[in-house]
Request: fold
Amino acid sequence: MKSKKLDLSQYNLKIVSSRELNKLLIVWNPDNHPDNKNEIIRKFCKVNSLKTSEIKLENIFKANKRIEKEADTQNADNVLIIGDAIQFPSLEYTHKKSPAYTDIIFEQIGEFNLKIGRIYGGEKTLQNHIRFNYGDSNLAVVVDTTPKKSEKPVQALQELDFKVFMWSGIKGQSLKIMEPLLEKAEMILQYSDGTFFDRVHGNAKEWFGGSPPKAFFTYKDFRKIQFQCYPFIFSEACYTANFGPFVREAMRALSVYIGATSLTYNNKIEYDTWENCFTSDGYKYGILDLLAKKSTLGDAKLTVDKILFETLPASKQGKISELNKKNNIKIEDQDIISVIQWMYFGNPLRPVTVGPKPNFKISKIPVYT
Reply:
């Protein structure tokens, strides 16, 4: 499809309603932001009648209790944290000797009743995410190095009633060709199935793949893009959401981004459902499944976290529950990692990304080798 046919004016562009924004609580630590930015945030939230809480705490556990109390007091079940892990604490853990982060603690582990998003960046980025415009283009892009039209992620998006376009990364179209389509997409899915050299890999700066490995999309490429639909990007590659420049630039370009902060693992056996598939595949298909059942992206993510936690063996649930009391712990269990490592960047009130008549019915989660 040629980009000139993709006239965004034909699509339904909306701004989230004030009634929905009443469900949102804006949280930040003013001690870790310049005074001018604090004043900008305060004024913007006051003008838009947004609920706010300034939490001057560095301790993750005290901050978590304050968030829970503030959300209850202000009757908000969606929380938007302003700041990276330095500006507002995120829970830290170590996996395979690499440091990583998770915000699952703020969802209230065990209860799972708060939908958490996080943003950081300049004044314009913050304002655009807090009170956002979103588009309904019904266009989706699937990113992979060796795509096949019959592969399940493509079928999943088609069942969600998207018109799907393939971007074959390092072996296919250049970014210059794909840029107009990416800017107009409502959903972008990057999945990492397949053999080692066939799949997409990631780090805090880029997506890469092939033999020898070569980057095909970096944080600098995000700077060339200004998304027009506030799209949902789901990235299955390792490390991309670990508070690096990749996710920072994804937010600046105005997208919602869910990605992993540590190594991701694929399933080694076939599963009938995602609810007991403790891998990146289970998480990915859980999100896709709930896009057709929930109203917001924040609700879809929270529900996947809750279901996967509750179907874990009790001993592994206990290990995750330890995160309510301990920071900087070492976690090597792949099932646990596959549940806790997903970070949400963007406003959790963003409506789910689906076509006009979604009919997603997951059958089996396959094994790609």
Remarks:
- Residues 1-6 have pLDDT under 50 and may be disordered.
- The radius of gyration is 19 Å.
